[in-house]
Hints:
The model has no long low-confidence stretch (mean pLDDT 93). By secondary structure, the chain is an all-alpha fold. The protein has helices at residues 7-31, 39-61, 73-89, 92-109.
Amino acid sequence: MNTKLSLTMVLLGTIVSAVIILITRAFPFVLFSRRDPPRIICLIEKYIPSMVMAILVIYCLKDIRLETHPWGIPSFTALAVTVVLHLWKRNPMISILGGTILYMILSRVM
């Protein structure tokens, strides 16, 4: 089935998506602009970054085949470099980019 979208439909979809994203991003700021957030929100805010990182590490490592070449070497090496860069520089962009670039290079040459 070949359905084509008109320019009007594409623009309308883009505008609706932009408005929904704006509302969902602004909602917490509007809701808590005059009062402090509940304690559960503060707890979530404190622990969510480490939970997201743990989920991302698991997601990145889930498809590694240790029994076949290259035995996960690119993934584990890039993970180790990412951790070392983050502990050394404390800059997420440097550690993420460094690990990603190393992984891309190792996955092509191995």
